[in-house]
Amino acid sequence: MFERIKEDVACVFERDPAARTTFEILTNYPGVHAILMHRLNHRLWEAGWKLLARTLSTLMRWLTGIEIHPGATIGRRFFIDHGMGVVIGETASIGDDCTLYHGVTLGGTSWQKGKRHPTLGNDVVVGAGAKVLGPITIGNGARIGSNAVVVKAVPDGATVVGIPGRIVQVDEDYKKHHKHALEEKIFDAYGMPHEMPELDPVQYALSNVLDDIVRIDEKIQLLCKTLKKMGNEDLPPELDSCQIRSSVVAKTTTTNTTTQND
Fold first, then answer.
1. How far apart are alpha carbons 14 and 11 in whole angstroms?
2. Structure-model confidence comparison of residues 179 and 172, the more confident one
3. pLDDT tens digits, residue range 104-128?
4. Homologous superfamily of 2-196 in CATH?
5. How far apart are CA 192 and CA 199, in angstroms?
6. Prior bond to 201 cis, omega within 30?
7. Is the CB of residue 142 less than 8 Å from the CB of residue 154?
8. Hey, which of 67, 117, 120, 262 has its CA 20 to 30 A from 106?
9. What is the pLDDT of residues 31-41, one digit of tens each?
10. pLDDT per residue over 67-82, tens digit each?
11. Which residues sit opposite 166 in a β-bridge?
């Protein structure tokens, strides 16, 4: 038991540069208070003292703003930073060395009995305000960006952002990089790796589509000029180069505005 407490305190020093002393962590970190009480509540739940376990977990929610169902399974060196508004459902399962920030929900999407909450692998970071919903599996070393909404399984080493959540990066060698990060005291705060791509896949695809439209427009204009030189002065309105360019500009402007709003 005391070994677990030492691990819970030590992982705070690794992931929060504001932590200064063990006494400060034990007295001023609601995430630590919540997880220490959950260790007890989970044992009570497993022993059949379900009402007492739920009552104590409700008390800790009042005191810390963190709601952890006593039926949830949580691994070692688990850290909840800031903590306010965190919700962890009954059938949620969390591996070792995971980190959650404030406002995170590990929720269910069904009223049916049985497994209905997420399973997080080892070394998973879930950023502030993110929602991971349903009986899905989040792979080892995954990073969930702040405010993402994840409803599909995430592979090992992946980084997910956006609504709905989409994979923007997969680290095939995340174990090696995680070991290096621990040695260099580097931590992916709020689920955002230090080496994020400058452009996510959706925006990259839209940019390529816009480039293709411009090239097509240029070729159509060239075709119209060639036809006019050959004596075809009475071209249909839909082939008028000015109208085509206006249409392309309008579509480009609309797409760019939508992308920026997203």
1. 5
2. 172
3. 999 988 888 889 999 999 989 998 9
4. Hexapeptide repeat proteins (2.160.10.10)
5. 14
6. no
7. yes
8. 262
9. 999 999 999 99
10. 999 999 999 899 998 8
11. 161
